[in-house]
Write a structure and sequence with these properties.
Length: about 120
């Protein structure tokens, strides 16, 4: 089974940057897509970004376009989310996830594997 472990969360001031990492327990195949989601108390988990192993194509939520970048390091079996120009509204628990492709990548219901999450707090 695939295990995902997030790291890199923490406290940062508005306008700052932070990079999240997601370590994958075993190498995924080109049939997989990887994604980042985030959730705040009392709200539904929302899509942030996704990337396909096969062609490297990416998808982003409108709220993070131009500020966040999703990428992978295949040699290290690691998924990254580089976050820049952070805003207080970006504060949430961030989760990495994996799913088999093809299929929708922007909804949590399509993902098979999930990490435990890492807290990101952006102060004003």
């Amino acid at each position: 089974q695939v295990q995902l472990v997030e790291s890199g969360g923490g406290l940062v001031q508005a306008g700052g940057s932070l990079r999240l990492s997601c370590a994958v327990s075993r190498r995924t195949t080109s049939n997989y897509a990887m994604g980042w989601f985030r959730q705040v108390p009392g709200k539904e988990r929302e899509f942030v970004a996704a990337i396909k192993w096969s062609d490297g194509s990416t998808s982003y939520a409108d709220s993070v376009k131009g500020r966040f970048t999703i990428s992978t390091d295949n040699a290290q079996n690691t998924l990254y989310l580089q976050m820049k120009s952070l805003k207080p509204e970006d504060t949430a628990v961030y989760y990495c996830a994996a799913k088999r492709w093809p299929g929708v990548v922007t909804t949590q219901w399509q993902y098979n594997y999930w990490g435990q999450g890492t807290q990101v707090t952006v102060s004003s």
